[in-house]
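Subject: for your reference before the review

Hello V.,

The reviewers asked for a structural picture of the protein, and I figured it would be easier to keep everything in one thread rather than splitting it across files. Below is the amino acid sequence we used in the manuscript, unchanged from the supplementary table.
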Amino acid sequence: MTKLFGLIGETLKHSWSVPIHHELGCEAYRLYELKAEELEPFLKENEIGGLNVTIPYKKTVIPCCASIDPYAAAIGSVNTLVPDENGQLHGFNTDALGLSYIARRSSISFRNAKVIILGSGGTSLTARAVARQEGAREIIVVSRSGENNYTNLAHHADADILINTTPVGMYPHNGERPVDLTIFPSLRGVLDVIYNPQRTSLLMQAEAMDIPHSGGLPMLVAQAVRAEEKFFGKAIPDSEIERITAILRRAMTNIILIGMPGSGKTTIGEMLAKMSEREAVDIDEEIVKTTGCSIPELFQTIGEDGFRRMETDAVRKAGKESGKIIMTGGGVVTRPENYAPLHQNGRIYQLERALFRLPVDGRPISQKTPVEEIARNRAPLYQAFRDVLVSNNASPEEAAKMIWKDFNENSGN
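And here is what came back from the structure prediction:
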């Protein structure tokens, strides 16, 4: 019989496990969606090579194991099954190893730390086990209705590390934040197990406050790598975790184009879409499709304020997605609230073009206000939004190539 490698769970359509394990050389790795009554027969009737386990079976598989490792026992949850030479299954928890990895790679130490863990579910148990194992002096679990809840967080303002194990802020509910980090002035580390979006609202606040932080994507890869080690009894260097994380991050990251009206965002965006085989999303075109009106018509009927509100809605929708080319309107930077939806999954490129080259036809703001004045007012706004400044004074083809080169070199970081 062919040995089975893969992930078992109930609903697996959003899983990244297959590409991760294929990158590690396990071409046989597959997804196995099982109903509760199918789980035990599946484990008994197939020759297992190695399996990962996800919701809702991390506890259910424990009675099927001849033994479980200390982390799995402490957490009460198994996410990796490996057979011995007699076919008996042994349970491990590599989620804990993944969480420990992202803390270490972000230089966040649990030693003698007061740790706040948001959430009381299975991942919370993992976080507690890791914090305890790595020397935390105090662990506070925050839940909606427990002794420590979201109404009395100020009692723990001296926390050193915060870990979010809740789904708050996860796609499609991007932008939500479980807590305000300003409550904790002593924080020296923030971990969020969510990996979609790459930067949750919580992580973007930590970034703005210059607090060491990490999202869940490298944790996802690290736990898979540690599982693969157990499947095949071989050591895999951490460099493989970083390599695969970079591949996934590059695939998930949007290319965002900002710049003055007429700077070439649409033209270059379409070129990038062909180069990358990615879908191009033009924010102005999305608004036109939704309303059935042209941009000049909208400015005339609802005014600039009304248009900007519609633009923000379109930016929030587009920014949730992954792996796109997103072309924005020239004035997107005039509303600070547009930054987070673009930044959460994106690398932002500002296109710069000589002012005398900027057309004004069909552009309501440029027809009303001198281009020089618009450029002067928006310069600091573009600078605040952008990751990279790209000149479009030679040719659109050259600018598109520069962006694609930079993206491939830097978006996986």
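For the response letter, the relevant points are probably these. The longest helix spans residues 295-319. The longest strand covers residues 346-352.

Happy to draft the paragraph if you're swamped.

O.
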